[in-house]
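Supplementary Note 3. Input sequence used for the single-chain structure prediction.
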Amino acid sequence: MDERQVIFIVTKRCNFDCTYCPIIKEGVSMRFEVARDFLDEYSKENEKIDLKFFGGEPLLEFDLVKEILSYVKLKFREFSFEICTNGFLLTLEMLDFFERENFKFHISIDGDRITQGYKFKDAVNIIDKVPELRRDFPIVNIVLSPKNIWDSYSNFVYLYQKGFRKFKLLPHFFTNWREDEFVEFEKQLSYIFSFIKEKGIYLDNFFIKENRPLVNSGIVVDCKGVEFVDNGFLISDELVDNEVLGGMNERLDRILGSFLDELRNV
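The predicted structure, written as discrete structure tokens, is reproduced below.
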């Protein structure tokens, strides 16, 4: 039995071009037959599957996600599902589906409308896509970047006050940080982690340990059915090979990790 998570890259398309996203975008998506062939083979030696839908923006292929899920239920005795979205295409029908199927459901919201505007032009209020009484369901992915780091704590509190109760903190990797921004990153994290401790907030970072920043390990199946050991191939070689950015990635990861270790030991 293979205990690794399976990650399907259901599309390399995205409806946004967020300034901090290092993922290579292409106009291709997975066909159901590609997913079916992998699942047929995988099910020969596994009765259980932990499946994550990744992109690009996976909600662009919502019908494919539903089709794959139905097939998984036919092939496996145990299963779990996970997905991450920017939320722009989210509808109540989709939210109902993800909640009914017990998805680990991530939505990317960095803060208020002004902060969201740092990611993409003409930002809509993604918060309104999730009804107020259902905001304890999603895990909110918050990217801490040089542009928003000065307001990160206030944005975290803002989202908590809006009713969200589960979070994941993601430093903006593969970009240049000034020394004063590193200092502010550490200071803002200290405020955020004090708030987390005070309120007993769920933080998804505690349950995830990756070997490399921003890279998910497992059996990663791309749109054409080619398998990889992680999704690092989605990041351009120019960024991956940049030693300066690599050093900054490690420093960000180390700072965040120190706060996580401290809170674990409380």
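The radius of gyration is 18 Å. The longest helix spans residues 243-264.
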